[in-house]
Specification:
This protein is α+β, with helices and mostly antiparallel strands. 39% of the residues lie in helices and 20% in strands. The chain is globular and about 60 Å long.
């Protein structure tokens, strides 16, 4: 249903400069990670791939259909114990901080990798997924206790016209289990993780004028996705087991409340100076990546033939030497006279 009814319009809007968010909500063991496909392996066949790999593949396949020059950067982070960790960085244990610049939420130091194909994105997804934090609960011996957010950032430039650059963010979110504390026997830090998810629906459930985005790192990062500048889609994952009936009802109640959240996605146009700077940064990153892989990646910058380089160097040296000798000969002639 998702691929047939929502894929076309959803992806079309992303490629035209509108933000989007997809997140899976539900108790531990309800199939969130499997449905999203954020814990893929090389053995997964295309027919059983989750939504995220399918979206990434379709994004790149649709890009040639539009008259834009696209650049894509990908980041992958997790929120564990209210700490933000870079799943694509060298030091995953390092905790990153949130900053707000020009009313935009940013994470200084977060790795953003330039990609040119869906295979590169899926490789990063696979590498990052292996670094996610897991812990044992009463409902799952190996439960993902962190919220994982994969974010492709897309810039669409109309040829050389940097004044008409469109930007879009696609948040793909795999949330930690939503179950109540008694159900999982979670304690301490894991209790704190389970509580922060309920901040997502506080505004509509309690009719507050103040939106508590700052109450947790998750809601702060997803501020645009919750009542802001984004087209947001929620997947409610439930278990068919009778023993999980109460948790299933809680998930459905949350999904019903989430339907009341009204977002206002707008077209995102980049500042011309920022767009040009971003383009140059992407170009530098691409050149650095190619240099790291060897000079064979630069057909236009391949080394010149030795027969061309040596004569130029020899001619210059010979000319300089000849000039020096002539000067010395001239000086000797004047001294003798």
């Amino acid at each position: 249903m998702f691929t047939k009814r929502l894929h076309f319009q959803w992806l079309k809007n992303i490629l035209k400069g509108y933000n989007a968010t997809l997140f899976a909500y539900g108790q531990t063991g309800s199939g969130k990670t499997y449905t999203m496909g954020t814990c893929i392996s090389e053995s997964v066949v295309e027919e059983s791939a989750g939504i995220v790999p399918r979206i990434i593949k379709d994004l790149f396949e649709r890009m040639p259909n539009y008259e834009y020059e696209y650049t894509v950067k990908v980041s992958f982070l997790e929120i564990y114990k209210e700490d933000i960790h870079d799943l694509l960085g060298e030091d995953v244990s390092a905790s990153l901080q949130i900053r707000e610049e020009n009313q935009l939420v940013k994470i200084p130091g977060l790795t953003e990798t330039v990609v040119t194909s869906p295979e590169e994105v899926l490789y990063l997804l696979h590498c990052g997924s292996t670094k996610r934090s897991v812990a044992s609960t009463a409902m799952n011996l190996k439960s993902s206790r962190s919220h994982a957010i994969l974010t492709p950032k897309i810039a669409a430039m109309d040829g050389e016209n940097t004044e008409d650059t469109l930007t879009a963010k696609l948040h793909l979110v795999d949330l930690a289990g939503s179950e109540r504390i008694k159900k999982t026997h979670a304690e301490g830090d894991r209790l704190k993780e389970g509580m922060c998810i309920f901040a997502l629906c506080e505004r509509d459930a309690k009719k507050r004028s103040h939106i508590p985005y700052r109450d947790s790192r998750l809601t702060r990062l997803l501020q645009d996705s919750l009542g802001g500048n984004s087209a947001t889609l929620m997947l409610a994952c439930v278990s068919p087991a009778d023993i999980n009936m109460e948790e299933t009802l809680n998930t459905l109640r949350y999904a019903d409340r989430a339907r009341l959240i009204k977002n206002k996605p707008i077209l995102n146009r980049a500042d011309p100076k920022d767009a040009e700077l971003a383009k140059l940064r992407v170009l530098v990153a691409q050149l650095q990546a190619r240099l790291a892989n060897g000079s064979s990646c630069f057909p236009l910058l391949s080394p010149c033939p030795k027969t061309i380089i040596k004569p130029l160097s020899t001619t210059t040296t010979t000319t300089t030497t000849t000039t020096t000798i002539n000067n010395n000969s001239t000086n000797s002639h004047f001294l003798q006279n």
